[in-house]
Records
---
Amino acid sequence: MSDTPLLSSLTLPDDVPGLTLAQKQALAQELRETVIRVVTQNGGHLAPSLGVVELTLALLSCFDPARDAIVWDVGHQSYPWKLLTGRADRFDTLRRYGGLSGFPNRGESPYDRFGVGHASTSISAALGVAAARDLAGGSEHVVAVIGDGALSGGMAFEALNQAGGMGKRLIVILNDNKMSISENTGALSRFLSRNLSRGTVMNIKQHVARVLSRFPGGDSLIDIIRKGEISFKSFFTPGMLFEAFQFNYIGPINGHDIAQLEKHLEAAKKLDMPVLLHIRTRKGKGYVPAENDPAHFHGISASVPDEIPVPPQPQGWKPSGPGFSRAFGQALCELAEKDERIFAITAAMPEGTGLETYRKRFPDRFADVGICEEHAVTFAAGLAASGFRPVVAIYSTFMQRAYDQIIHDVCLQNLPVTLCLDRAGLVGEDGPTHHGAFDLSWLRTVPNLAIAAPRDEECLADALAAVLALDGPAALRYPRGSGRRLDPSRWERASALRFPAGPHPYELGKGEVIVEGDSRVCVIACGQRVLPCAEAALAAAEKTGRLATVFDARWVKPLPEEQILALAASHDALLLVEENALMGGFTSAVLELLSDHDMLGRLTVRRLGLPDRFIPHGPVRRLRDDVGLNVPGISSALEKLLCADSPRP
């Protein structure tokens, strides 16, 4: 007998509206059990999805997803939606290589009306859908579901402002769980938590009525107040804010009560104006560990390996440190002990960026601004203009949202703001919305900005100290997880390795040779791919008898120009390697340098990096295998150059 008799037997989503309340409640339990089972195996966003099970059932009871548009914000709340819109039979493939995406994806299902992975986009997208509907003379409903802190983003308020001004028929559901990734911060969160009891409101009204009745004309004033009861209450509750945006505000209501949700959704459908339905939910609902620690269970790692064959970890490697994020946090704490000008800033992710310890140790020099990357950067610029040394730690994919602020507010004024781009490169199962694939390409073009890419955690600490010592803006780029340290005892040519022992200066615009090879091929790499290049060179040497030189550039901007030009002059071929988009990234910078010095005509040059397409989700090692950025891929490219009769063109 199936553990999910309803979920297994229903025709979804068509059968949901015809279920009784008791059946929907039973189905809610099955949905939670399925999400918990799959996500604890595959990894993913557990707590956010558990909080919207009843809301998802209510949406499918009141709306026709084949006709009406339901637009999810962020998208990590969409697992119940996937289960109920024809993907239950594939749900076990969630976040697996070639399986279901962890976010809404237009290419995956017609019920996913808008693809998403970043926050605060739903109201803008839904308003666009509503405008298109009206231009086409349609009558379908459009619903935006926003929550998990996404309302703290300025883009959401820009959309609310336009939606209210346009007066389009649009329903916005605010899923208020007091959380984003971590606990929500700021005045808006506190404001949304205000909720006067009915008794309190009645007592205020009765007191006002008694006072006014003593004056001439008081009865008329009382009648006016009674007619304006909704506005009176909204003055004291969150409705005041949304009424100011010309939205009809409903709520707050219990987001786990299916009957109440359906009642208010049906009421909202009848209104020919923008409506905001404010619901309150519990993140992690139905799974006690997630309820007690929703930040930890916001996103969890896989406990069961992907069934798709994944290339094995290279032999002879071991973790090089505690992980880049944690190493960053530790290094920043040590630097902040000595320099009271250091001020750390993050955007709703103190745990993910390794700043939790810093926050506890230096609470007066720390700010979590919420999902407000643009504000975070300009806030940092203001601090820098006043003599501080702010450090902005945000995932690479989210730092994209602050590009204008980086140019206009930081770099144009040459302010000493340090941008720390965590999760640079491929991140794995979160997929194309979260890969840090483009930062080198868009940062490299900005004047005054220095960019460092350390190869491991030890170098990260040195690089952080170096960029904080600069008198202008800088970016520090590092990946998710731990680096790897090479075991020299495994290799016959290990004597060629040149790894400095212990901390050493991270001199601006200077790289270092880490494998001393012959004059045939030189590998020039940056960041996390440097050490795999070293192993690839040693592996290729065992097959070909020739050892390639490996150079760690350390800096993407300024490039170690003199060293690169010297290596180009002393070698027949170059292999350039990066984990960033090939277009405009580190390897493009090297090609530009060589071209400017008329050196391309005498060299064979090959490049490895991310191709001009969005990389799907899957295990990082599998994805690197696909694009040739793992050790076998780099080694194969090296062997071709080493074995060529004449590498010169």
---
Amino acid sequence: MTYAHWMLTADERGNDATRLDERHSDGSAWSEGNRVRALVHGAAYFAELLAGIRAMRAGDLLLFTDWRGDPDERLGGPGTEIGTVLQQAAERGVIVKGLLWRSHLDSLHFSQKANRRLGAEIEEAGGECLLDLRVRPGGSHHQKMVVLRHPGRPELDVAYVGGIDLCHNRNDDAGHRGDRQSLPMASAYGPHPPWHDVQLAVRGPAVGDVEAVFRERWQDPAPLSRSPLTRLRELVHREDTSADALPPQAPDPAPAGTQTVQVLRTYPNRLLYGYPFAPDGERSIARGYIKALRRAQGLVYLEDQYLWSPRVVRHFARALSAHRRLRLIGVIPLVPEQDGPLTLPMNLIGRIAALDALRRAGGDRVAVYGLENPAGTPVYVHAKVCVIDDVWASVGSDNINLRSWTHDSELSCVVLDQSPDPRAPSDPGGLGDGARVFARELRLELMREHLEAADGDGPDGPGGPAQDALCDPVTAFAAFAEAAAALDAWHEEGRRGPRPPGRLRRYVPPELPAVKRVLATPLHHVLVDPDGRPFGLRRRNAF
């Protein structure tokens, strides 16, 4: 496999100010020889993270960035609150450094107070956690990473990258009964919203790449905020506003597996105090998607919180138009996160417009679903996963929307496996790539969960003739359609008889008069922007 067929080269990243690629001695824009595991659901991630932090010793290094952090969120049982666990690590002599988005006001349902509390707890124990508002107006720091480094024990080094924040609602598992520590959401989700999410555990040389992303942000000399009110608040609360020096970065861990990892990012082009590591921003996440989509031949499998924005979705539509055998499966929330009189119509307008564009391009080769748990409660899909042709897999903090591709800071990892899948590898376009183990196993793990199929089962059930049938894109596409149709019919018939297997429901947006009126307006995509109107891009760094 030629990695440059699927991954961005250093030039294609479009950011010659970063040291992310130049740190590789061969000049490549990726790191080979990694072992990557997908941790599906917050419970799996939190359990592993808890064990990893508790095993850290004095002199070890713990780095993290997050959109929201709730200090009382438990990683396990009582006594495992994230604030307590990080405090204890700092008290043991672990070097703890964190960057949390300073955020908007909590009255807007964001995270300012929670992030300040977590930062204060870490600082009291001797760690350092900065509240970072170095974003464009209306933007956020959305990256979600944790890096654990162990001088003298590099075999323990690991980086976690994905969509899972260290906060309430996230600690759910495959049963989807929800996190007992919950934040309010739309009423359809109930008091403990079921939550579906994915985080990667990366071991090997790419740990150094993720650490380099943290270091670039940490060493940014710009003030944490340009707001006079915020800076006054920093003085009143005696907040830490300057980053202490980090210890020198250790050599990258030794090769540990067969996966090649490329770290991709979004940074906005800030008007003042531009990022020294991305003075004109970075759009490598968008560019990575666009490059991979040009090679898509058989199946694009998406799990995404949003799936909207015409400027983003058009690249998926172009792939569907260019390749008549290409299919797209999307798994998204059945119900928007909030059901307010303003946010609900805006969310629906953005999503309906995006799905219409996809269906115009792909017709019945496009299928979009939501999830429900065994009790019939919708599952909030927060995952940010894309698998293309069982070759290219991306997991990160970025959603399929314009904010994630242009305006907020985002972080994702693209994984290409050197190992071909031995089970009748698919090569739908005759490109000589064929299915790869990591990408295929990630897709199959997610699809089996949603179908309630055991490992190795096909759509015909355990032990049937369809062993590994889900490897085939056409069969997988049909299996989702059949499972959703059966569950939809069971609901329509009053839930009589045994519940059909599977968690899938066909996505049908609720009909609201206000939404219909706006969609009937020719310029509805200008009048209503669910992304919050990101600023225009400078031409040379647009995607």
